[in-house]
Amino acid sequence: MSPRLKRGEPEQVERLQALSQAFRPAAPIDRQSLFSGRTRQLGDLFGVADQAGQHAVVYGERGVGKTSLVSVAAEVLGAAGVLTARTTCDRSDDYESVWKKALGEVQFTVTKPGVGFAGETRDVRVAASSLLADDATPHDVRRGLQAIAGGRRVAIFVDEFDRLAGADDRLLFADTIKTLSDELPDATVVLVGVADDVEQLIAEHQSIERALVQIHMPRMSSDELAQVVTGGIERARLTIARDAVDTIARLAQGLPHYAHLLGQLSARNALEDLRTNVRLGDVEDAVAEAIEKTQQTVRETYRRATEENGDALYSKIVLACALAESDEYGFFTVADVRLPDVDASSYLEALAEPSHGSLLQRRGEARPRYRFVNPLLQPYVLMRGLAEGDVAPEALRR
């Protein structure tokens, strides 16, 4: 039997602290002990690191957990003796700056001579980025990695690769992968970015296809999201009702951010009520708070799409889009948007236009498919529907 909770007593405070550690809605997961699901993708990354001359591209929608995946992979590989480094691209980066940032994460020892004839030599730790001269080439990178490897395997993770805008810079990365595959097979490069396919991320990908493993990160399954929620709840020594877990998994729409956010807020509601069991009512209360915590850009996009056109039906159309069955890339068709006695086609076309905030992305002409431009919008719309009584929890748990 769990101890009786008292407000402000250590038992309640310790569980609140455990929730903050178990659920990370605002940051990627960077510890294996907190990571849930994604076993196939994680296994693929480990397989790449173990194969000589192999490299990887991890791609998928924004918000599906790509950064968490490579963070955990780097942690596990590092613990196994692989020399690892991670960096993140930004709009100011080029080929050289990305590699200098990546190698700047690695320290190695050089021996420097002493002063004068009798001076003793000394070992100094320096950043591996010092090995790269200005205007670094793929061969310079290969020599730098070779110098720091010392016979060990090396794995370099480059996140948000889609933000590297220059086509020439991306071509240089393709050349680097080709060079490393041929001349330094114990080095692995993992590129990570927002894309629907590898062609959107890296130039000349076909020329390095034999050396490049493509790892698609779809949205998380309901079972994986349930694992995220129940795992976090159990770390705080709480329990959660099955209908509460199912509702969170459906609301999250495959995105771990909302599973972490709603799991954390729901459990806090239970602890505030001095209970150790999380109920469906706690989830419903958490939804209202989560709506307020949603990014301003998401709320503003929704407002423009549903309130600035003078047609009250747009809010119902957007909700129907959020409820529509979609493929692994988040796309749905007009037929998937089920609203009685309404032809949704013209509304979906309008929602893909800038005048309606470009809420949807359209692909194809004859039989167009649509998806939310910002994946975080879909859970937000569902939460609003639940909070405003337009969607029943039972409908979310289908």
Description:
The chain has helices at 10-22, 39-50, 66-79, 95-103, 138-149, 167-183, 222-235, 242-252, 256-272, 280-293, 296-307, 313-323, 345-351, 377-387, 393-396; strands spanning 55-60, 83-88, 107-112, 122-127, 154-159, 187-194, 212-216, 239-240, 277-278, 332-333, 360-363, 369-372. The chain has 398 residues and is α/β, with parallel strands linked by helices. Among the domains are: 38-216, Rossmann fold (3-Layer(aba) Sandwich); 296-375. The protein has a 5-stranded parallel sheet with strand order 2-5-6-1-7, with helices on both faces. Helix 6 (167-183) links the parallel strand 5 (154-159) and strand 6 (187-194). Helix 1 runs antiparallel to helix 9.
Fraction of helical residues: 40-55%
The name of the CATH topology of the domain at 38-216 is: Rossmann fold
Strand count, sense and barrel status of the largest sheet are:
5 strands, parallel
Low-confidence stretches: none
Return the CATH architecture of the domain at 38-216: 3-Layer(aba) Sandwich
CATH domain class name of the domain at 38-216: Alpha Beta
End-to-end distance: 33 Å
Tally of DSSP helical segments:
15
Total DSSP E strands: 12
Oligomer: single chain
CATH superfamily of the domain at 38-216: P-loop containing nucleotide triphosphate hydrolases
